[in-house]
Amino acid sequence: MKHSRIPFITTVIILLFFYIPLVLMVLQSLQHKVPGMDTKQWTTKWYVKLYEDPRLPEVVLNTVVIGLSAAFFSTILGTLSALAVYKYKSKLQTVHRGLLYAPLILPEILVGISLLICFSALDIPLGRTTVILAHTAFCTSYVAVVIMASLEDFDFTLLEASRDLGATGWQTTFRIILPLLWPAIAAGGLLAFTLSLDDFIVTSFVAGNDCTTLPLYIYSAFSRGKNPLERICALSSVLLAVTFILVAATLFFGRKSITKAEG
User: Fold this and answer.
1) Reported confidence tier of residue 260, pLDDT bands at 50, 70, 90
2) Among the listed ranges 68-77, 128-137, 177-186, which one has the minimum average pLDDT value?
């Protein structure tokens, strides 16, 4: 019986449709049109010109601080939520599980609008703090899902054994639970940082006028048309490279977690 090649061909077409524009963007950032001629030359000057923008360091600092803060808080909350779902079996935890999955399927524009209404009702000024709170809110679900997947293969008999040996709750947590879950926790934290780094829709609602992240900066530079397209492509390529590195690190820690669980 012959296997159909349609799924393979479809997958290749989808991947090409997704990645070819990214490759073209990177190539565009490495080209420079020669004045008075229709030819283009290979160059890295657009990457060098990124350092000439006085606003860019502040934008990068905002993006990194927001990403690290959101990753830190969402990792703590996501880990506690995942442990609570698996430790306590009740109808309330079923609702808890559903609430954890809800941000994964809700449209980002609804999340952004609801958070904006919430901050306005609480009279919280929009800025870096509101962006951190917003990113923490939706990143927590992703972290919890990653850790819940790791808990599927977690041997809870180890906790009972530690209690039988006289270990306290804190000793069990820091010497057994966290070391075994560390690869999944690290993967969830890196995923949260990646999502915070790339988020545009939610950030555009809650950032206000005094807080600009890289996605907002790139969109503003592109929409105004004051910056050369090659320079915008160079900045986007840098963001793309950082994202791929973080995703690769997330997959590495996730695979390490699976290997440890299988062992």
Assistant:
1) low
2) 177-186
pLDDT category of residue 257 using cuts at 50, 70 and 90:
low
For the domain 55-262, what is the CATH code? 1.10.3720.10
Q: How many CB atoms lie within 10 A of CB 188?
A: 32
Question: Which residues does 217 contact at the CB level (< 8 Å), separation at least 6?
Answer: 55, 56, 59, 235
DSSP code string of 131-150: HHHHHHHHHHHHHHHHHHHH
By CB neighbour count within 10 A (0-12 exposed, 13-18 middle, 19+ buried), where does 159 fall? Answer: middle
Torsion angle of the four alpha carbons 159, 160, 165, 167, in this order, in degrees rounded to the nearest 10: 40
pLDDT higher than 90, residue 76: yes
Helix (H) or strand (E) holding 201: helix 201-206
In this structure, the dihedral spanned by the alpha carbons of residues 114, 115, 117 and 122, taken in order and rounded to 10 degrees, is 140
User: Where do you find CATH 1.10.3720.10 in the chain?
Assistant: 55-262
